Amino acid sequence: MENSNSPNSRPKKSAASNPLEAVVKFLSSTQLATFLLLALFVLTWFATLEQTVNGLKPMMDKYFNWKELFFFPEIGKPWQKDGAMVPITIRFPMPSGFWLCVLFTINLTLGGLIRFRKSPQKIGILLSHFSIVFLMVAAGVTKFTEKRGALQIYEGKVSDAARDYHAEVIEISELADGKVTKVHLVDWEFLKDLRGGGERMFKLSNLPFDLKVTNLVENAQVSPAQFVPPVKGEKVIDGFHLKALPRAKETEAHMAGVELSVLSKGGENLQELLLGSRSLKPATVSVDGRPYLLQMRKKLWPLPFKVQLDDFRVERDPGTNRAAAYESDVTRLDGVETEEVLIQMNEPMRRRGWTFFQANWGPQDDPNPAEYYSVFEVVHNPADHWPLWSLLISMAGLIGHFVYKLTLFLTKPRKSAVS
Amino acid sequence: MKARAFLPVLFFGLVTVSCRKPDEVEISETRVLTTLDEEPAVNATSSEQFLPPEVLSQIQASGQSLDGSEAAAGSSAWIYLLPAADWKEADKAPMREVNLTFGDGEQAGEVYLSVSGGGLQPNVDRWYRQFGADTQPIAELGRLEFLGKQGYLVEATGRYEPGMGRPGKDGQALLGAIVEDQGRLVTVKMIGPEADVQARREQFVKFVASLARK
């Protein structure tokens, strides 16, 4: 940031006549930094309010959406009976938190690092500025590259795929001799905006048919029409229809469903289907004499190695069903290399950029189940440790600067108290 | 140039609207195969895709099919006594061999008999889960006379979530009876407003005791 140490002694004529320098001066200005910090403060305040109404994940997606430059916040209407959360929209456009952070990073880089007057005495401050820039970059890398999901394994079983908590996909599997040979994906990026009745054609470049999604319900149950009659004119296909379930604040619990048509390459409607993430089995369609499996599910993150759950142990609080501690013995199967690892709370397993945290277990309502399953939160994030490094750099910089100032103070000649 | 001269630029930048997604998308993304792709379930029917096996077996046991027709004759042959004047026969419903209602308006509830497969404990666990309650081991449940045997009595209160997309309801209660008979599980459930169900506990026990096969 530009401050009293910045080179404001440069001739004014130069800044006024050179537009590039004017832009740089603005982007590095203390005024911009102040505006950005205030805006981020207000944004954080609204985000906290909106989180109570819409939940954490939808709030984060909205406030830090890099594809939008502004949005309208929603907060809970105050003084509602029984504390009910009724959202109201604030009709004031708020700038995207993502772009505020980008601007703040540029501002700090220009003003606090590049244009900052450098001297041995300022190394501590420079380090602190650098650590914040590094922290912002870490946040950006996390936002765009992090993979996070849950891996559930029963004792004695092996798995090599974690399920994303939020994103859903439509998978189309090619079959040969009853085995899956290839899986094609329609990503959530192309589906999520179809909520509420939108439709989109998906041209499957390597398959003899296309798909047309005609409706997507974010949290849906495919229900038998005979038991649960449609109430809003939902389309009934083969005795079932897509029933919308209430929106949950914890959107991890949402399981989407779609109505879709299988179309020939010529556009002929071959079959209508319902797919639901809650479904137990995939749908089978036959095109040109070949079978294909279609299913909707949470997006899978394939892992570069397999994990086998050897044993799961849970200790319960005396006299209750509540878990006091739980841990998993796993065997990591990485090619020809195998290794037995204990995963427990606060002691994850790390391997090839993937981290496995002990997150959950089940079945929890059975005190003596025939077999347990363990759930690991699986994370892949290149910037996993960057915040730690950033804080260490910041700490070193600030401690250095304070020690320097303290030394100056202690060594400064003092005037006599009595003149 | 003054720094504030950029503020209008920033403002107009903020009101720029992002691009809309197209109506047609070319899909070429694939993923590597995983252990979850092993042993694919091919040619599953809609029922197998969307209904849990225990629900499917209940449908089959009740002689119903998903299109509403009665699949097997003579599967709902029960004798029973209605224990109060406001207990009434209700329309036939899938998975219910006996279907009754009691009370009127806000105090209305239902009583129904089903025959199904599965184990005692899993069924009892499911009932408790529908009320968000902690399950109880079978050995700790109350007992009652049911088809000439000692059946188990399940009691739960709270918010009732019937599942399969049907809406939940607060302030409900369950009295359930379950017994193994002729290799199947016979269950009777009374569900309704908590105060009414509790007031009709004696009626429920009488009804269950009166049940017999024709």
Q: Any low-confidence stretches of chain B, pLDDT <50, length ≥5?
A: 15-19, 68-75
Largest sheet of chain A: 10 strands, antiparallel
Which two chains have the most extensive interface, and how many residues on each? A-B, 76 and 55 residues
Based on the structure, what is the oligomeric state of the protein chains?
heterodimer
Shape of chain B: elongated
**Mean pLDDT across all residues of chain B, rounded?**
81
**Morphology call of chain A:** globular
CATH topology of the domain at 77-213 in chain B: Protein Transport Mog1p, Chain A
Q: From the alpha-carbon coordinates, what is the Rg of chain B to the nearest angstrom?
A: 26 Å
The end-to-end span of chain B amounts to 97 Å
Q: State the secondary-structure class of chain B.
A: alpha+beta
Q: What's the count of strands of chain B?
A: 11
Q: Give the DSSP E fraction of chain A (strand runs of 2 or more residues).
A: 35-45%
Percent helix of chain A, as a range, is 25-40%
Rg of Cα set of chain A: 28 Å
The SSE string of chain B, one letter per element, is HEEHHEEEEHEEEEHHE
Number of strands of chain A: 20
**Whole-Å distance between the termini of chain A?**
42 Å
Strand-residue proportion of chain B: 25-35%
- Order of SSEs of chain A: HHHHEEEEHHEEEEEEEEEEEEEEEEH
Please tell me the overall pLDDT of chain A. 89
Overview of this protein structure:
The complex is a heterodimer of chains A (419) and B (214). By secondary structure, chain A is an alpha+beta fold. Chain A has seven helices and 20 strands. Chain A has helices spanning 12-17, 19-27, 30-54, 56-63, 97-114, 123-145, 386-411; strands spanning 70-71, 74-76, 87-89, 94-95, 147-154, 158-176, 179-186, 200-204, 209-217, 220-224, 240-244, 257-264, 269-276, 283-287, 290-316, 323-334, 337-344, 349-351, 354-362, 373-380. In chain A, strand 15 (290-316) and strand 16 form a beta hairpin. The radius of gyration of chain A is 28 Å and the shape is globular. Mean pLDDT of chain A is 89; it is low at 1-9. Chain B is an alpha+beta fold. The model of chain B is unreliable at 15-19 and 68-75 (pLDDT under 50). Chain B has a domain at 77-213: 3-Layer(aba) Sandwich (Protein Transport Mog1p, Chain A). The longest helix of chain B has 11 residues, at 120-130. In chain B, the strands form two sheets. Chain B has a seven-stranded antiparallel β-sheet with strand order 4-5-6-10-9-8-7, sandwiched between helices. A two-stranded antiparallel ribbon of chain B has the order 3-11. Classes of the chains: A alpha+beta (419), B alpha+beta (214). At the A-B interface, helix 2, strand 6, strand 7, strand 8 and strand 10 of A face helix 1, strand 1, strand 2, helix 2 and helix 4 of B. Strand 8 of chain A pairs parallel with strand 1 of chain B.
